[in-house]
Amino acid sequence: MSPIRTFVRPALLTTALLLAACNQGQQAASQASSQAAPATTATTSASTASTAASGPSADAASASSTAAASPAATSSASDADAASRPAPPAGFPAGPTPVEGTDYTVIDTPDQPSGDKVQVVEVFGYGCPHCNNLQPSMTAWEAKLPRDVDFSYLPAAFGPGAPHCWEEFARGFYAAKAMGLPVSKFHDGVFKAVWDDKKFDGTTCNVIPGIFATFGVDATTFASTMQSFAVNAKIGNAHDQAMRWGVDSTPTIVVDGKYKVIELAKGGPDGMLHTVDWLIAKQRPAHARH
After folding, report:
1. Which of 80, 102, 163, 204 is the most exposed place for a label (fewest CB within 10 A)?
2. Rounded CA gap, 26 and 120, in Å?
């Protein structure tokens, strides 16, 4: 799938370009999916030995220290939940070896690995059809994460009042958390309200508080919280973090602040998450010493 231009690069892309990106929609995805050639699997499988040989230890040694760990990459489970999660698997996951430049890209200024857990972040938008298609797989994948992985969501925040209400939905995400709603309670439900129940027409942003109110908050208080100082700060941080990572499409999954996985159409959700699992394994040695 061609990259979906949905994030602003400084002084280059406009909000209109960003929104047109995510709306390239199902046609690009289906075309890319139907053209996935057997030769690609053969090529990636043939490169397994050389990639694995130079992978985890050498790659960890070269990690850059130019960026701080993202405030958005925080634990999505309590300590008790983490303790009950499965232990990290040994080695790399079975299947083809992902290829740099095809299945993932390296961030120009990667974060410095820190702590004993690999950080994984999905940059998403509730108005993005590809994010909606990915979400059921993300929910199932998150439920099986080993205890040495921290996963979180980072909403893509574009200009206020833009088509599809990107920033307003991002504000809704942070307002819900500020009002005590756990992400697990509302996240899947917002996608369902937007895409299955058609409670959002693509442009009417003032329906967003009502959508979130169905999960147990007062709509008026919620609308006020969306404009609060705390949420303003979260929106600024989310935008800045995505810019530092060079995110220009949704959904993008960032592994340890170093790798971006964006080729959703090529292998579908399963292929995308296989690449994420492989990159997690690749980064584990960088955290073993912490």
Report:
1. 80
2. 26
Is residue 64 a contact partner of residue 110, using CB atoms and an 8 Å limit?
A: yes
Residue for token pair 């699992």: 277
- Spatial CA neighbour of 191 closest among 167, 173, 205, 171: 173
**CA nearest neighbour of 160 among 227, 240, 253:** 227
For 231-274, write each residue's pLDDT tens digit.
999 999 999 999 999 998 899 999 999 999 986 767 899 999 99
Residues 6+ apart with CB under 8 A from 288: 116
Q: Which residues pair with 152 in a beta bridge?
A: 121
259: nearest Cα among 108, 83, 126: 108
Within 8 A by CB and 6+ apart from 24, the residues are: 2, 4
Q: How far apart are CA 146 and CA 151, in angstroms?
A: 10
Is residue 130 within 8 Å of 251, Cβ to Cβ? yes
The whole-angstrom separation of Cα 3 and Cα 263 is: 8
Encode pLDDT of 100-150 as tens digits.
Answer: 999 999 999 999 889 999 999 999 999 999 999 999 999 999 999 999 999
Q: Which domains does the chain have, with CATH numbers?
A: 15-288 (3.40.30.10)
